[in-house]
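question for whoever is on the cluster today: can someone run the full assembly for these? two chains, 612 residues total. i dont have access anymore since they changed the login thing
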Amino acid sequence: MRQASECSEYTELNTLFKKRKRCRNFVITSFVCWLFLMVYFTNLGEANIGFAQVLRIILGKVSGNQEWLVSSPLGIQAIVWDIRLPRIITGAFVGMGLAVSGAVFQSLLMNPLADPYTIGISTGAALGASVAIYLTGILQIATIPILPAAFVGSILTLLLVTSIANRSRGMNAANLIIAGIIVSSILSAGISFIKNAAGEEVGAIVFWLMGSLASRTWNHVLVIVPVVILCSLVIFRYADELNLLGTGEDTARGLGVDVKRVRRILLVAASLLTAACVSVSGIIGFVGLVIPHLLRFGFTSDNRQLLPMSALLGANLLLFADNLARVAFASAIPVGVLTTLMGGPFFLYLFIRRGDRGGEAA
Amino acid sequence: MIHVDDLSFSYDQKPFIEKLNLQVKPGFTVLIGPNGSGKTTLLRTMSGMLEGYKGSISMVGKNIRKMSAIERAKTFAVVNQRQNFTFPFSCLEFVSLGRYPHRKNMNRLEKEDYEIILESMRSMEVLHFKDKLLNEVSGGEQQRVVLACALAQKTKVLLLDEAFSALDIAHKANVVKLLRRRVEEDQLSVVSVMHDLPLAYRYADRVCVMQKGSLVSHEEPHLAMGKDVMREVFRVETEIIEGRGLYINI
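^ ran it for u. tokens below:
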């Protein structure tokens, strides 16, 4: 009798773990795939280098062992180490950051259609970058680097949006979205004004706004990698609380979450993540929206699994899209255009399919 | 178990509840009253969801203002009127959130937690659809899952705000019966806002009747739900038939 009850209990516990096992397998496969893609894409391009040589150059540079590098001419080393690799690493981490912050914003704002740009952080970065391009290239007053200008723009926007949301009866999801929309539309008008003032030089601003990973350097890597790793670790630590916040403020509070504190921490971490991503790559759409959304319906809503899965799928997707943009198109179209071109119809397909099944099209 | 002393609460500076006193003993206490009489406000202040009240509220001998969020969640479980199912959690995932206040060890669920989760789900008869998503099950099933989550918190006090309203009559009676059993076995204190007067009469240990923000009576059902009180508070004619229960003449 006891054996029978233990057995049924075991089966129940076992089914509990089945889903987790699927998620774990996904994470492991994506991680292996990510490592492979990083090396494989470094190998792709106009200059035909070869997989083994790419590996030798990377290993030689990382370990400092000159023996690995002897067989590769300096020009080839420069293509791999200074041109392709920084772009690929930046792309992978931007994809990771956007997907993780998208997942966080969706739960924080209790809206499965929210993305890292919903509360206007990207518009702040865009305004910062536009001002930098305008002052440097057009007025030639001073050389203002785009990256810090975009970063400062997004952080100022975050402060503005949260203080507006705080003023009207507490910083809940609806207030944050409304404050974000208001601030974002004002900043968009500012960008239009600068574009207008830039006259014929408007191209540089428009190209930045489209989102691209072309010509990224190790400086960009040094910004994006630590921010993505640190912020993601903070966010992973609060995955349980994020689950609870996604079920509603009252339920979360009833289950013991210090809602105000946790929401503030997650908001800052996800916003920093977005700010860093937008600052290094411009506005790359759809990764932050589609990846968490897709995984939620395909696997689970449990953020303990969803967040790492989003990180890896985001990294792989942006790597794939950027290298497609780089290699397949002669004129190297900006990756932001490609992700939206690929993501848009795919999202439409999901929307229609869910509608057909009679489910909520969310 | 629960002490509410001199509780006052105002909405937009208009006094709504004034100097309310209430002592709740272990057992099944039902809060009844017409719409807008202050039942939910009272329950939400008791659960710490509404702040800015005057007076004091203590649970199991401790003032709730002095409790941390986790301490509160270990002392009392709350089921709110409205639930949010924006994200497609499975029923099992949702119930396991109930163990959040008790988690140690890097927030990992232990074997004991799983046993409590499964026991709570079994008792609310939701275990057979544990892998279904919450937005795929019926409203009544969702409410049972939410109740199972509250039971998984393993608290001595349960505060329920219309937690049975979407249940069909068979499940409603069943869930109330089950809660009564838990109340007796584990010496729980349940305070539940309910609109179903005959059910409240049949299963409550004590009934609190509220009207315009104040407590009209707080006694055993046959004393609290007398003909005159019901007529005055709800404007309905009721009849208590010996051995059968409360009937409403509509």
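summary bc i know u wont read the tokens: Chain B has a mean pLDDT of 88. Chain B touches chain A at residues 47-49, 68-74, 77-78, 80, 82-90, 92-94, 97-98, 100-101, 103, 107, 114-115, 118, 127, 130-131, 135, 153 (CB under 8 Å).
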